[in-house]
Design goal:
The chain is of the alpha+beta class. The protein contains five helices and 21 strands. The protein is 16% helix and 32% strand. The strands form five sheets. Strands 14-15-17-16-18-13-12-21 form an eight-stranded antiparallel β-sheet. Strands 2, 5, 6, 9, 10 and 11 form a six-stranded mixed β-sheet that branches. β9 (132-140) and β10 form a beta hairpin.
Length: 328
């Protein structure tokens, strides 16, 4: 009987240990979601959408099954697109703008895809012709795309900017043609009063003066991050005395709100930072700020003094309309 009890206890102990080991094992990995057999996708083409200018999207249809997929050819011309604004306003695109010869069904073979680019501006003028946001989808052939959020920005072509500081006024000419995202971001923030009361927190005489940080120490960001618009090779925009350019972190596509003004020519920055304008009035103000007494920042990016001992205040930054005062 004792041996029976012993055997029973050993069996129970082994069962408990086995159960415990099973409990300690990691749960089985979840399978990755399988892509749909047929799929419509929308992808933006423009890195920034400007009101009144072409706003292109890429429409892609993918058939991952063996059988062919019949879908309307008009999809590749934008038919089936639908837009909805945050206020509930909506609009859709029919095949009215599709060439008559392209309205027939399209047979997409198995395991293949097809794509096309369409300009939304003439198809959805009520959404693309003014600043704002909307959600875009496309439906057809028994499939529907995921929503694509689109932000349309104001056209700032021809505008400059005025930086009013406690050391004087600096006027800038801005290059919205070659750096549209950077200029739009800077002037959107300026018009909204984002920079009012901030400072030039980093000053390195002979190099540059940097400002626009909402925290005041170089660690702050704005509401967006920007693609690097620096140009390449011979097309890289120059960093000369008085050039305004966007600061960024280690990731070159992390520019947000901080900017700097070159105190002297800085060719080493060409192609690495997005120069987007030039001082046209007030270089003496840049010189005056470059001369302010500074302290060393322990562990900071500069070997010498770079933190102003007294705040160098940015009172306001505002857009300057094109000559003649025309508003776009």
């Amino acid at each position: 009987m004792a041996r029976a009890r012993t055997g029973l206890c050993v069996a129970l102990l082994l069962a408990l240990l086995a159960g415990g080991a099973a409990a300690l094992q990691a749960p089985p990995a979840q399978a990755k979601p399988t892509p749909p057999e047929i799929e419509l996708r929308l992808e933006p083409v423009e890195k920034i959408c400007i009101a009144g200018k072409p706003l292109r999207v890429r429409i892609e249809a993918t058939n991952r099954r063996a059988a062919s997929w019949q879908l309307p050819n008009a999809l590749l011309f934008g038919a089936g697109l639908a837009a909805m604004g945050p206020d509930g306003a909506n609009a859709s695109v029919t095949d009215a703008n599709t060439p008559a010869g392209a309205r027939q069904p399209l047979l997409l073979p198995g395991f293949s895809s097809i794509s096309a680019q369409v300009d939304l501006a003439p198809l959805l003028p009520e959404f693309c012709g003014k600043p704002g946001t909307f959600t875009l989808t496309i439906n057809g052939g028994g499939a529907a795309s995921r929503p694509l959020d689109v932000e349309v920005r104001r056209d700032w072509t021809g505008f400059g900017a005025r930086i009013t500081t406690d050391h004087g006024v600096i006027d800038l000419a801005l290059d919205a043609e070659r750096a549209p995202a950077t200029v739009a971001n800077f002037l959107d923030l300026a018009e909204a009063g984002f920079y009012d009361g901030l400072s030039f927190h980093r000053v390195v005489k002979g190099f540059m003066i940097q400002g626009g940080c909402p925290v005041g120490d170089g660690t702050g960001d704005g509401p967006r991050q920007l693609p690097l618009e620096a140009g390449r090779g011979e097309g890289a925009r120059k960093h000369q005395r008085g050039t305004i350019s966007m600061a960024h972190k280690a990731d070159p596509n992390s520019g947000s709100c901080q900017f700097f003004l070159c105190h002297r020519d800085q060719p080493a920055l060409d192609g690495n930072y997005a120069a987007f304008g030039q001082v046209v009035k007030g270089l003496e103000v840049v010189d005056a700020i470059a001369d302010v007494p500074c302290a060393v920042v322990p562990g900071g990016p500069d070997a010498g003094p770079s933190k102003p001992k007294q705040k160098v205040k940015i009172e306001t930054i505002r857009p300057l309309p094109p000559e003649g005062g025309g508003q776009r």
